[in-house]
């Protein structure tokens, strides 16, 4: 079973040379720490940063340089800062090659719920709805089950939706899955995890074809 860093490390393998990538709040912010050093990638944060680097070491933080989740970050040479209007112009104009988001629930058809739990106070949906409406390549980073052990990969989302039929791939602490017209297709297993364990943890339709390899991280 993977921890949050393991999920981020696996997703980092999906990042290609020359990509512009938006990192959502939570696990996705860790992806910048694991991207290969031999490729050139521009990380974009919706609060107005292009050219984010890894998280700073303790004692080297700059409180004025933060991501959309209010975490202190580093910037790479050539990084730029701009207002939210320009940032969302990049997003809505489809200039982002890959969007990596966290989620509370994902449905087997690619619906995503990641902004609100009814009855709990939230500041708003932030940029999530713009991201899922505009992005053509969305990968979700999430735990496979909630704290009660219930599946977060469902037949149908129970929480208010952020986007409809938009998720392409999911990386959890148990597996890598692709969203297909027929349901969640199991591509890889986390080290030490069996197909049977993944089946038990998945409420939505799960497609298993042939021998499923372990993740390479």
From TrEMBL:
Q: From the Swiss-Prot or TrEMBL record, give the protein name.
A: CoA transferase subunit B
Taxonomy, top ranks, is:
Bacteria, Pseudomonadati, Bacteroidota, Flavobacteriia, Flavobacteriales
Into which family does the record put it?
Belongs to the 3-oxoacid CoA-transferase subunit B family.
Molecular function terms in GO for this entry?
Answer: CoA-transferase activity
Q: Extract the InterPro entries matched here.
A: 3-oxoacid_CoA-transf_B, CoA_trans_fam_I, CoA_transf_AS, NagB/RpiA_transferase-like
The alphabetized UniProt keywords are: Transferase
Annotated Pfam families: CoA_trans
- Decide whether keyword Nucleus is in the record: no
Gene3D superfamilies (alphabetical):
Glutaconate Coenzyme A-transferase (3.40.1080.10)
